[in-house]
What we know:
The complex is a heterodimer of chains A (427) and B (299). With 427 residues, chain A is α/β, with parallel strands linked by helices. Helices cover 70% and strands 8% of the residues of chain A.
Amino acid sequence: MSKYWVITKEVYKKNVKSFGFAVMVLSPLLVFAFIAGLTYYFSQEEQQAPDVSIAVLTENESINQIFSNEEWGFEIEKEIGTETEAEEALLDESISGYLVAEVENGTIDAQLVYTDDMSELLPIIQEALSNYQTMVRADQLALAPEEVMALSEPVMIDEQYVNVEEGSLTQEDFSDRMIQQGGAYFVSIAIMIFIMTYAGIIAEEVASEKGTRIMEIILSSASATNHFFGKLTGVMLILLTQIAIYAVVGLGAWLYFKDAQIVQDLIGGVDVAAIFQELMGYTLIFFIVGVLMYVVLAAFFGSLATKMEDVNKAVTPIVFLALTGFYVGIFAFTAPDNMFVAVFSYIPLFTPFVMPFRIAAETVSTFGIWMSIIGTVGFAIVISFIALAFYRSNVLIYSDTNLLGTIKRSWSIMQSNKKAKKLNHSA
Amino acid sequence: MLEVKDLTKTFGSLTAVDDLNFTIKPGEIMGLIGQNGAGKTTTFRIILNLLTPDRGHVLWNEGYLTTKTFNKIGYLPEERGLYPKVSVENQLLYFAQLRGKKKSEIKPLIDHWLEKFEVKGKKTDKVKTLSKGNQQKVQLISTLIHQPELIILDEPFSGLDPVNAELLEDGIREAQANGASIIFSSHNMNNVEELCNSLIMLKDGKPVLNGTVRDIRQQFGRTKLFLESDLTPEELRQFPGVQRVEKTNDGIDVAYLTETEDGKAIFDAATKNGYIPTFSQQPPTLEEIFKRLAGEKNE
Lengths: 427, 299
């Protein structure tokens, strides 16, 4: 086994077996389950709301019938027959309001006395009474049921959602855009969470090895290149493991629960396959490149720290970069056409956060998308090698100066090594 | 065989190592002494290829050190560190694998090494559960278990009690017997005197002492005289060349001479009545030489 793989395996094994990894994997699942449970609970709560009782005072049997239907979301207090009784019931809060209704010459004369509890029921009652009035009048005019239907039929609108693009109108499915924007939103949050987590992991890996001088043993055993890329690979494998666990859990849960009422209630109208497709496209590329890029940066900044305690300080620049990207992304969500957003979407460090929103809003051409992908990948490769070059000398500096001071010293060691190599060659 | 030739390394205006030369043959131990910041760790780092020298070179068996040579090195850094959450066994296996060994080669050796260094704790224990001394031993084992041919120990004795220091000395001697070339730095001159075939003292990157322990001591002359006789300290001070006189706890007078030759007149005077229990003229100890050289101002 090459040393590169020895290092990769060690990083992977050590982390995956740790308690922290279990917490890291489980906590989003728990949060998700909690939110789903809460959503379900409230939706159930809403459905079985008929805590409200009202009294209906009418001579008209049909009106009585209408309101006896359980679907209205309130109960009818049938014992109450007069306004006096109703007022008393209102006073002792056994009902929330009462309706007095009479029909005269096809016109319903209704009076509703109600408290706060009932305010939401107003349109429902009005609609029910209006429908009944329509029926009564239709009857008077001797209209057939078909004729009534014809009269009350709403106008059908053929919707065409279009996009103004380069002087022409392109038709577009509105739900597609919703899904794309949702996907972009999801990715920017996921990138943020994964960057924070994995940047922390690798920075800690590097800083702890440096702080404990294990680094010196390792770098006298294997090349810095092997170590740096072995660590990166190990951490990326941990990331893939986490995603794979979610994929398996998600798929399992989907197969098991997809027909369950609760799932139907929650995601009834959502096209899961379409979301999945969306996530598998550009979004996945941006996710992977984005996390990789930030993990490389984290390894670099981690190697600047002298002690474990300094890790948080060392990764602060990354946190700020990621936050900037994240907020520009959120801004892009509302204003995808903005010039500022367009510029940021081509800055490699911010591309993964911003570009998905522009793709969703279709304010960027396919050429532009690929340009940004190539730019981001290229940038990730370049910073990997810059980080590696610094890494070699960073890990030998144990100073208490600030990050810039450490970078400066690291640079001078690099230069002195380079100069020395040249001299040795020419000698 | 390790050969260090004309080694010079500067960082900006600071010369960390200045024209250093030495050779360590198989089975030889060299001590590297010097104050903090004298250039010991930089020397080790250049040997380990972590730093590139401005001038000169390091040869191992007449070739340059490459990643292949890494497998033959055992290195103990000055500040000790292990992975706290990894078991003793996995730790040793990992470092040995990084030195190109297979797991199956090292696994059977672990029990033997833990026993040899009297490590208290099981090999399945996590490192952080061991005491500091035992952790240090685990690290020593990881430096030696892959049977390196070049062993570099940066302050290996610091923090060890006398019993453990002796275990370490035994370990170093065993590696020496197996033909390893060993270089170590130390602040404890006793360890250096006991173990080393040769030594180098660095001061501001420059070698100020270089040779065998005996030769180095001799080159300072037998200027320290231990004397038990009828002569009083006052009388002793009157002799030419006597700089100062001290009395040890055992009642022995110690006279510091300018030159070896100064002892003769004292010997004649002290023995004029015949037998005396002590007359011993010694070169200064390494520690005295160290202190003397370290204290000297640069010319």
